[in-house]
Structures are given as C-alpha cells and as structure tokens.
Amino acid sequence: MKKIITAAASVLLISATTAQAEGLGDLTGGWSGDASVGATNAAGNSKASSISGAIKLSKNVDKWTHVLSASVLRGESTIVVERRLADGSVEIDPATNAPVRDIIKGENSERYTIGYQPRYQWKDNSYFFGIVDWEKDKPANINTATRQIIGIGHTFWQTSTGFFNGEVGFGNKNLEPVFGDDLNGGIGYVGFNFYNRLTETTTFNADMKSDFGSDNTFTEIGLGLTFKASDKLSVKLSHFLRNNTDLTNPTNPLDADTDTVTTLNLVFALN
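The structure assignment produced for this chain is given below.
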C-alpha cells in the first residue's frame, strides 16, 4: 500500500513539473502570496518571548495550481520558582530563613512546517490534489512527521466574495515522536476550507484538516480574521486548535492531546 501511495504521489508531482517544463511558464516567475510575522516580549519578574511567521506562495499554470508554504512558531520563557522538597514543602535556606528559589528557562513552543500542494482543475468545481509536507514540534512530542497524500476536492459554494470547498484523500504518514515508538502507516484525509469577505477591508476564514490511521489521528482547526490596512499590509488575528492522539509523553507533566495557539500578525502581500 505504501509503495502504491508513493508511486501515485510521484506521478502527480511529475505531471505538475512536466507541465511547467513544457513552456507553460518560468518556475521562478508568476508567484504571488503573502508573508506574516508577529512577536511578543515581556520582562520583569519573569521573562517571555515568542515569534511566529508564515509564508504562502501560489502560482497558476494552465489547469495547475502550485502552493508552497512554511511556518514557524517559537517561544521561550524564564521564571523564578520556589524549590520543593520530596514531601512537597518549600525548602528554606537556613542562612537567610527565606525560601530557596531556582531560575527555570525553557522553550514553551517550537514548531516548524514546510509543505507543497499541487492541484489540477479537473472540472469547473472539482480538482485533484496532492500534499507533501514536513513538521517538527518537540513540545507536542513530534520530532519529525511527514505526509504524502493524494485526493480529490470539490468547491460546493463560490461567489465573488468567498468560497467553501472540501477534500478527501488517502496517503502515508511517518511520525517519529520525541518519546515513544514511531507511528507509520497508511492514513485517510479530509479537509474543509471556508473564506468570505465580510467588508471591503475585512475577511474571515475557517479551515479544518484531519488525517487518521490505525495508530494516530491528527486534527487541526484554524480561524482567522484579517483587517486590510493598505494594498500591501494587513493585520490578522488567528486561532488554531490542534489535536494529536496517541502521542503521550510521560516525561512532560503538562502533556496533553490538544494545543491551542492565538496569534496577532502583520501580513505583507507578495504580489
């Protein structure tokens, strides 16, 4: 099954590359998209900083659409905590009769992603697609994860102000956790994308994607509200919920299946 999926994905990718090579456009030209960046910093009794960024580029060539994406979310914090004894009581310094305090510094988020999605417009409202992506998210117990997916999508609603489409597919996933056994094998895939322009300067998007296999189920829901300041600059408020089953890390006392992230980023148009 893995060989069949890999071969099918290879055929789709080769077809997309061949279409480009047959004089349908220069690979380095005609791309458009946007880049976003956001950062926070706090200092005082505790210190915390974070940075988030993403880039998404797309190019249309005849019936093909190529989408490249990458993102980063990285944060660290430094806090002062009272040292505890084995019985849970606070340790006291006999010289000062004050609690003993330790400085704790660590990363609270560290996620990187890279993805490529070719799409072939089969009919007016239907298309074939492929997904090849890579992810690293150590706080979520993901050392590396890769997916190769092929499938079919359909646009259920489309107007001059928005669209709604759905996708189904199948493929292969290789997940190497920071702690625990590797999770490899075939997966099913489903995704939905909704976009609507609320006003001339405000847009809303809602996306859901999920892959599921015998060992692991991953689901991500994203919501975004974008306010356009100029032709090249916007501000976007985003909220993401990510759920990954069967990735328990017993070494992490805060381990959970679900992570949520809220960001406020500047978005720059790359047209």
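Interim note for the steering committee: DSSP finds one helix and 14 strands in the chain. Residues 1-27 have pLDDT under 50 and may be disordered.
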